[in-house]
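can u do me a favor
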């Protein structure tokens, strides 16, 4: 079991078996976002969420995450949303605009819907940094995003 889950498994104040979670996944940089999804999915299952209560929604890229997150968070039966994406810096300011928009959009969805919406979007300088954070030597940020929404539900 991953180290981050050891300390919380079996200790949730919320009955996770009765909660539904949506995971919104950007298809762009799929070699990164797929391991992020697997990390989030596996973490939720290990924490007691039923597999049939985990909903996956794909979007073309990270910029589309906030709208899809809003659609999911507005569903009465969804307790929390996990947004997963990856934006790798290039030679143009595109990186800055996308990262700023996605960050603000995801935060706005959480505040608007009053539900936990996790920011599991990697914003890295290069592909290796993304790989390291998607199940590599620095862990899996998808797993951390799943843990974040569970902790927020306990508040």
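np, heres the sequence
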């Amino acid at each position: 079991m991953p180290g981050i889950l050891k300390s919380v498994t079996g200790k949730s104040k919320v009955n996770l078996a009765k909660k539904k979670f949506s995971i919104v996944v950007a298809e762009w940089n799929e070699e990164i976002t797929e391991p992020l999804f697997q990390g989030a999915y596996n973490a939720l299952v290990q924490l007691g969420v039923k597999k049939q209560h985990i909903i996956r929604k794909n979007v073309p890229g990270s910029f589309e995450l906030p709208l899809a997150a809003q659609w999911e968070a507005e569903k009465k039966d969804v307790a929390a949303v996990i947004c997963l994406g990856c934006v790798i810096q290039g030679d143009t300011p595109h990186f800055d605009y996308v990262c700023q928009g996605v960050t603000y959009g995801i935060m706005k969805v959480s505040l608007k819907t009053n539900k936990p919406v996790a920011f599991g979007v990697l914003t890295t300088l290069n592909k290796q940094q993304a790989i390291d954070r998607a199940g590599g030597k620095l862990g899996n940020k998808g797993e951390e995003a799943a843990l974040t929404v569970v902790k927020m539900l306990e508040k």
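Residues 31-153 form a domain with the Rossmann fold fold (CATH 3.40.50.960). hope that helps!!
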